[in-house]
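Deviations from the work plan: none for this task. Representative record:
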Amino acid sequence: DSGVTQTPKHLITATGQRVTLRCSPRSGDLSVYWYQQSLDQGLQFLIQYYNGEERAKGNILERFSAQQFPDLHSELNLSSLELGDSALYFCASSEGTTPYEQYFGPGTRLTVT
Amino acid sequence: AQSVAQPEDQVNVAEGNPLTVKCTYSVSGNPYLFWYVQYPNRGLQFLLKYITGDNLVKGSYGFEAEFNKSQTSFHLKKPSALVSDSALYFCAVRPSSTSGTYKYIFGTGTRLKVLA
């Protein structure tokens, strides 16, 4: 158990809908990262927050947004969902901004029908 | 463009034999390098990292990796493979940064299959 929790574990929704994925980092970790893992594209970095502030942006679509709250939990919002958004979404956390290893949550499997 | 390459989609090795999973990178400056393992239906687990110092890094479960700056490689190795090592392995790099951004780049993964 990495100490990172993600909810829900599974999510099935229809095209055009909006969903929110939630992540709670390990106790004491200030950085949160979001990744998308799909069969054809591997693990894609989406976005990173450190202590509530956005620190790095990867291949995140404009339909997606994220935030980190004062209690350090983070939410990833996905809107106007398309079939291609079906994937595993992972959250990871690390102590800070120096090159610490990341601890990954179990993931949320999103299926868009 | 900064990138990480794992040239083999799959590596097959017999149990008890040494294994190598290859990783090469292309980033500016001095990189920080990581290996992660993913078992079915699980998140990634950290194995080891290279930040600075000794080029041979030892990690969890008997794995080690060798940083080779001239070849820009960071291959994962284990002297004697176990069937339980069968999993998906990811190499990752975090370029050194002075701008305050800390973007991690992951390879596409290599599936290791250890045959009994």
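Chain A touches chain B at residues 2, 4, 31, 33, 35, 42-45, 48, 50, 55-56, 58, 90, 92, 97, 99, 101-107 (CB under 8 Å).
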